[in-house]
């Protein structure tokens, strides 16, 4: 496989990112994202390119002073299983460390992938009660999923909550 280059996403990448994510939405692995939502969050994303073609994406969303969420890792079928997801996750973890985060969270069906990268399943509360109360004020559905709130249960059924210490 040719060299994989990972870089920060740009607005010109958003439609390619949507096209990457859509097959995972159809397979019910990822939640669908409106195009406007991807544009609003483009600064959270990195893309992976092979020979100038976007073949993967992933996002890091800061949740609290020490906690971030890995979101929306997707790769094209032709590079699936060839390490592109690994390269994306490594880039997102490096970005998290640069921001001063010490823990990463993900909500995933892909427990083997994240487990190979040091994430462990958790069932208990991940943040102290005072932080939980602050996070309740967020309008972000991802935060609601992290908090395991009832109004997002339809989005989280079957997913595993996983955390990694950096």
Automatic annotation (TrEMBL):
CDD domains: NAT_SF
InterPro entries reported for this sequence: Acyl_CoA_acyltransferase (IPR016181), GNAT_dom (IPR000182), NH2A_AcTrfase (IPR010167)
GO cellular component, one term: cytoplasm
SUPFAM superfamilies the UniProt entry points to: Acyl-CoA N-acyltransferases (Nat)
GO molecular function, one term: L-glutamate N-acetyltransferase activity
Matching NCBIfam families: PRK07922.1
Protein name: N-acetylglutamate synthase
Species lineage: Bacteria, Bacillati, Actinomycetota, Actinomycetes, Micrococcales
